[in-house]
Amino acid sequence: MIITTKHEIEEAILQGKSLARIVIAENKVLPGKFYVLLKQQQIPIQKLPGELLRAKYKVDTGMVAFAEETALLALDELLSRDKKNTYGRLLIADHIENPHNLGAMIRSCAAFDFDGVIVPDRRAAFISEGVSKSSSGAIFQVPIAKTHNLTLAINRLQKNDYWIVGTSLDAEETLQTIDLNRNIALIMGNEDRGIHQKMAEKCDYLIRIKMSSQIQSLNVSVAFGIVAHWLYLHNG
């Protein structure tokens, strides 16, 4: 995986990821602490003319690092991990297609102590450079599980004492009216279609976000950030 910002590189190193090398523009001066960190980790530093670096790797940050691919877990591996707080918090990304949205949601997962993310293996954004950049390196912090069938994954979660909460513009319930003192797996639906009907039928709760009547909907990553923060504030 290619990562292209100082913050992503630092996060990858702090999370124990292996970096094969870093390539920087000839005229780029690395911050002292960052340079020392690279030297401590014995990461080879290669220099290229800035124009060649931009042309070859299509980046404008003046640096490119080559990291090992993010390991994706099986659902049972994710469920076997310890919870960060009193109650488990998981994100089910229901066919999120935009890598920037998925990356931003993973960053919110890191910010609000979610225990992991569950993604489908088809018709969804890959865990890629775009996702990594949008997450600002949070993909190296948050465990990610991939599944072939989200509906079966929900069945498995329910057997493990998780309540399934979905978001819907037409829902009557809100975050303020449901019981949050339990393990919760939150479904966020596709940018255009929302939550798949079969998954909505599996939900224990469907909720909406209270907001001005002048706006019909929010970007999925923004909506998730609001819900995730509320769940973080109400966890035991």
* Low-pLDDT runs: none
**Distance between the first and last residues' Cα:** 37 Å
Query: What is the helix content?
Result: 25-40%
Put simply, the count of helices is: 9
Strand content: 15-25%
H/E element string? Answer: EHEHEHEHEHEHEHEEEHEH
Average of pLDDT? 90
* Major β-sheet profile: 7 strands, parallel
Q: Could you please describe the fold and organization of this structure?
A:
With about 240 residues, the chain is of the alpha/beta class. The protein is built from nine helices and eleven strands. The protein has helices spanning about 5-15, 30-40, 50-55, 75-80, 100-110, 130-135, 150-160, 195-200, 220-235, and strands at about 1-5, 20-25, 45-50, 65, 90-95, 115-120, 145, 160-165, 175, 185-190, 205-210. Strands 7-6-5-10-8-11-9 form a seven-stranded parallel beta sheet, sandwiched between helices. Helix 2 links the parallel strand 2 and strand 3 (about 45-50). Helix 5 (about 100-110) packs parallel to helix 6 (about 130-135) and helix 5 runs parallel beside helix 9 (about 220-235). The chain starts with a strand and ends with a helix.
Q: Which structural traits does this protein have?
A:
9 helices, 34% helix, 236 residues, 7-stranded parallel beta sheet, alpha/beta
